[in-house]
Automatic annotation (TrEMBL), chain A:
This is Prenyltransferase alpha-alpha toroid domain-containing protein. Belongs to the protein prenyltransferase subunit beta family. The lineage of its organism: Eukaryota, Fungi, Dikarya, Ascomycota, Saccharomycotina. Its cofactor is Zn(2+). It comes from Torulaspora globosa. GO terms for cellular component: CAAX-protein geranylgeranyltransferase complex. InterPro entries: PGGT1B-like, Prenyltrans, Terpenoid_cyclase/PrenylTrfase.
UniProtKB/TrEMBL annotation, chain B:
It is an enzyme of class 2 (transferase). The keyword Transferase applies. SUPFAM superfamilies: Protein prenylyltransferase. It comes from the Eukaryota. This is Protein farnesyltransferase/geranylgeranyltransferase type-1 subunit alpha. Its cofactor is Mg(2+). InterPro entries: Prenyl_trans_a (IPR002088). Belongs to the protein prenyltransferase subunit alpha family.
Amino acid sequence: MASIPNHAKHVRFLERHLSLLPGSQQEHDVNKMAVVFYSFTGLMALGIDVAEKYRSSLDWIHRHYITIKLPGWQQTISGFTGSLSVQIPGVNTVSLPNTLFALLVLKLMKDETFWDNHLDRQNIMTFVAKCQSPENGSFSSTLDYKNLKPSPVDPKDLRFCYIAISILYLLGCRNHNEFARHINLDKLLNYILSQQCEMGGFGSYNEAHAGYTSCALSALYLLGKLDQLSDEFKERTISWLCQRQVSREGCMSLLEPNANYDHDDHGGFQGRENKFADTCYVFWCLNSLRILGTQGCELPARLDLAEQFLLHRTQNTLIGGFSKNDQDDPDLYHTCLGIAALKLIEGSFDGVLFMPKNDAGLC
Amino acid sequence: MEGFEDIQPLPITTELPDELCRIMYTDEYKETMGIARALIQKQEYSKRALDLTAKAIGLAPAFYTIWNYRFDIVMHMADQDEDAARLLNGELDWVDETTLNNPKNYQIWSYKQALLERHPSPSFKRELPVLELMISDDMKNYHVWSFRKWCVLFFHDFTHELSYSDLLIQKDVYNNSAWTHRMFVLKHSNPDQKQIQLELEYVKEKIQQVPQNVSSWAYLQGLYENFLSGSYDTSIVQFAQMLTNNVTESPETAQTSWPEIDSSYALEFLATVYAKKDSTKKKAVKAYQALADKYDSIREPYWQRQISMLE
């Protein structure tokens, strides 16, 4: 596939999220950096040079970077907030996901000056390290607003483990010793392994989930630790992932009585057993399969049908964008993930770092 | 804002040059955030601050610092209150109200966990009706099920769980969360062989009702792998053969017309069992070939891979 049909409509759909937004969007105020990240990634994957187009907004992006050392703290931390609205002088509001989003945005913007001269890698790595739970080795998405401990009210799970590892990777960590210098790597590995599910895949309390599976596998890949998984578990996970492709053929048509089955989802992927297919799970499942696949080998899944599911079922050909299914309105997250999935199938998207490959030279 | 006349607001910054995603904030948003930000900075622990965080959370539910600050206020109040349990119960009530209004709010579950962990006398009985309401609204909500499992472990109380998962399975036999919950409960409660036999009967009955169901087959396999040392007996093999029209048992190796069967999962189950022994590997290959040709042809590349791994 040379280019995605309705290219111009998708570009406009993504660009709309960067322009003036109505008050109904204010609940996303806190995560503006996520909005910028998903829009830029989608645009870049569509071949738009965001570095050129949005250069004048660099100053505004840089303002999200903060460095903080409160009275009584031994260490200084740096990182990004998702919005200027959450920055409060004297209060720690650095966010782990938004730090990753901002770093990737800077990569897409080819902002080497800020990267080399303004980012304090040590401070950011200190922040990442402090987000690790001393109890079970997992990561929290933010610290307590007053001290250097993981926030007491924040979720800790595989998403934030992946985000932490990806940040350390972008900041230069490449092998066991380099990661272990900043975080408790053994505890993290134990945590990730504890999230393995019996039938393959990863998730909490033995219910596998394609999103968590992609996070776990991507983190292990960046750590160079996929060998921690047994061959048997890898096979089970490949099987579990392949089984997530929804089908209307053969015995699968017997699934009609399941209220969460639609034969028109044919070719799409679901995030869990017996659920509808969803745009974003095409990405999470295929990225996971690719990580587990051997170099040069074709994936044991029907990529052509996955592509058709995206193009004919969840793509909005009228206003652009992708939705999660054939019912909802298109949204930014599913648009970015849908484009990423199509580019992943094409081979021009780095699913582990979540970056279009034409830009991989920057990494 | 009324009641906050003494507070100098800390306004949010906007309308900067080349700002991306600029939002046309409502006056209510600007005013509430301005005061909330000032209170966080002052670290004021008061009833009015608590009320304001509720308003701010309503407007910006993903603002993690507000949740953190609210928790801090509650902990300060609980320290000073003679009846900390009553105060924390009041807070749990508030979260549940917020949760029921916005079940996709991801912060609430970890917030509730933090409250329960610091509660002097936490009660599962209090949590159960809310959990039931939330699960009946969205029967496969991953966060709610995870929270339920966290509660079961936190309170060390498994007494309600088997009957609850049965209820959910009766409502929807395809509910994978209910099936995995059942396995989670079983693995944590040291069942004896008698109970495992009862579970086998239970799942076989559900499979007979609806043979094409990945969740019940996974549960069946889980019973054997976790509690019966992975040794699949003749009766379970026959059970699967019955649902597959004995396609693996006929003497021909290649077939031009495969018969109708009730379940591709039964056939895959047989393939897994047959692949374990050299003497039955040929049958496993046949099962995979049948899956690739007819019963689950979308996964043809995957079934071919299984065959090549056996050869």
